[in-house]
Amino acid sequence: MALLELKNVCINFGGLKAVDKFNLTLQKGELVGLIGPNGAGKTTVFNMITGVYPPTEGEIRFAEKRTNSLKPYKISAVGISRTFQNIRLFGELPVIDNVLVAFHQHTHAGLLASVWRSKKFWQEEQSLVKKATGLLAIFGLDTLKNEISKNLPYGQQRRLEIARALATEPKLLLLDEPAAGMNPQETAKLMLLIKDIQKKFDLTILLIEHDMQVVMGICERILVLDYGVTIAEGPPEKIKKDPKVIEAYLGEEIH
Amino acid sequence: MNQLKKILLIILFLGLFLVLDLLISPRMNPYYLQILIYCGINIILAVSLNLINGFTGQFSIGHAGFMAIGGYTSAAFTFYLGPKILETLFLPLWFSKPLVFVAGLLLGGTLAAFAGLLVGIPSLRLRGDYLAIVTLGFGEIIRVFILNIDAIGGARGFSDVPKYTSLFWVLGFTVLTIVVVRNLVYSTHGRAFLSVREDEVAAEAMGINTTWYKVTAFVIGAFFAGIAGGLLGHYLQYLHTNSFTFIKSFEVVMMVVLGGMGSITGSILAAVILTLLPEVLRPVKDYRMVFYSILLVILMITRPQGIFGVREFNWDWLKKIFSRKKAQAEGA
Amino acid sequence: MQELIQQLINGITWGSIYALIALGYTMVYGVLKLINFAHSDVYMVGAFAGYYSAHWLGIAENPSVPKAILVMLISMIVCSCLGVIIERLAYKPLRKSSRLTALITAIGVSLLLENGGQLVFGADPKFFPQLIEGQEIWSKSGIVISNLQLIALIASLTLMGILQLFVYKTRTGKAMRAVSYNIQVASLMGISTDKIITITFAIGSALAGAAGVLVGLNNPKIDPIMGLLPGLKAFVAAVLGGIGNIPGAMLGGLIIGVAEVMTVGYLSSTFRDAIAFGILIAILIFRPAGILGKSTTEKV
Predict the structure, then answer these.
(1) Which of A109, A144, A161 is the last residue of a domain?
(2) CATH number 1.10.3470 given to B31-331
(3) Best mutation target, B301, B302, B305, to test chain C (most C CBs within 10 A)
(4) CA B172 to chain CA mean position, Å
(5) Cβ distance of A119 and B184 shorter than 8 Å
(6) Cα–Cα distances in Å, from B283 out to B271, B291, C20, C24?
(7) What one-character-per-residue DSSP string does C208-234 give?
(8) Secondary structure of residue A134 in the 3-state scheme
(9) Contact across the interface for C105 and B297, Cβ inside 8 Å
(10) pLDDT tens digit string along A34-85?
(11) CB distance B250–C298 less than 8 Å?
């Protein structure tokens, strides 16, 4: 059974076809890479899946349910979470609060209970903090939990974004250039981490990445987008040799 | 703390306020008492606006409009319906009068909250300055409409409002507002408000219904502004739309920004400072408002993030500052 | 029918003045993203500068057109100096702080000018001298147009035309557009953004000064808080037309001027101050960027 299915999905921005007849099927437990030159429409695909821009045509189904017209927060509730290419943390908030916000949809305390500070409220709050600290520990951020998140170094901010995305308890995780701006050591660690959390949280992952080392290293299957159209699809070895892909990257060598 | 203890604590505080009211009000210079009451009302306004502006990041400058709705509604209730209710209720007056007053205030707050809902809806499509100017416009429209309703005084103003507001009520509602906003902000809902301020797109992607939180912030903020209006009307026994122009809204925004966006203690302090400042400046007479505005500009230039920034005042923080100063002094 | 046309004419006169003030808001907003609340008081100062210079030049005694133009120029110069001073002293130190801080500062400056104005000019209204003798130049089938109305309209249109030419045909104008498009990038391209901001304030304030004199001609009672509501409505006009957009400010000003005069004529004068905001809310809900503004979607 396919977890996520995009059928002939198109989107126009003021007459410009940003993505044209895009098809994608993700099986549960897959780790798939989405690559392509700048402006190919990769992030737009993410934005359509997560409801930021509803597609102009086509259908998106997640776990057999149509999610086309759902608002982003509803899509998060059905089990899709994401990170952002240009880090979008809640910058002025402490690290732990970034994760706590993402827990919000699974909380039960109402407005009145919060104002009254009932016993249940406190219990829930304590368990949330514990859960958040545990999650941060996986990313090596638990010791920094009270830091203001915008003050973290770049690599840690990227990891915090992944931690925050996981806090929504997703089935499908969309990672938008998680290794951008990281040095080779950090990148290598990140690859292990992604593999690790995929197993731990039983995730399906779709990954946009420019760093070919990452994509070729961990993805089981790769899709190549160019000018909004899928030009190739297959396992890493096949993609490496695909002439269309090589042409799209304008002779950039693919390692 | 269990339920019983909490209720006892509330009763204790109410008793304390009552004693304070009975002890202080008759002895205090009426002028000082008035300033004290204004301080309370302004704290309610600033803290409630901070929920909208500071914590949720929705730029509203229409608080005076909500205040007007609350003030006029509650005054109309106690003025027109109040006497009838007092007649029909066979209860001692010391009991039934406060009952009528609270009912009036809550009604005023509710109607203001409803207006908050209406004003909150454009916030779903507009942001920043555009939203600000729309809230300002709503405030002015509310004022002009009240000006055209003759039953509540119209251009003459609404006089003979019963004098129900006393120090007790002001203290009570001030503390209530602070506690409600504080407890909300330090809860999962509070984090949701903050996430809307920080990054709407990310908040939505993390499962926050940003629409609901924006409107809720407006509704709660407007409710308390309405209460503040009711307290003011029943203190002055007179309401005029001139007290609720956008200038009043500006004043409240100034308190929020001066105190620090998203700092409750900052709002409280700034509300007190900006209430006292014109009074302290009274000796300079004609130059009073000139000084006031110059001070405001200087404060903003020298401390643009507000007095407390986004932080809350706390004792540890104060201790830290002092110990640092001490260390410096010793070092020198 | 005649009445309607008459109202329309009165509305257009008022609207053209709103439009002049609105330009200052729109230009400053364009470069600094700041609602310069003090702008409405610059307009007030413009009216007073006109008042004093007219008395000083002895124009009140024997009015003439060249002298009226001189008064307007003086008032424009005074206002542009004031605008530049405000920018330097109050806004420049806040270039890097939050926009809200700058906004509160603008409100502070506005309060300062109003209260300072009451101190310097006196709180009582003053009567603006007749710079040009009022005449009816058209009076047929119940429709009256005075020369003063015509002058207000022509003067505003001329000034707006000059501004439009300046912004689109000169190097400085091009730099101004660049700054308003993206201030960081503009400064990287070697544009002296501080200089451009100063020029923007100077021009915007000069237009407000002209508006002050034109209002004085048509509606001679002037006082230190005269700027408050017209200023706010002029800002509404700027938002209505699409902020940062010069023709938009003109369009917004005219719409609001006409709508107000119509409201007073056909509804009730008490609703006058609400109609501008009513239109604004209605339009912004359906077209959040204003009538001529371009809507920008946030890139995710």
Answers:
(1) A161
(2) yes
(3) B301
(4) 13
(5) no
(6) 21, 11, 40, 37
(7) HHHHHHHHHHHS-EE-TTTTHHHHHHH
(8) helix
(9) yes
(10) 998 888 889 999 999 999 999 999 999 999 999 998 999 999 999 999 999 9
(11) no
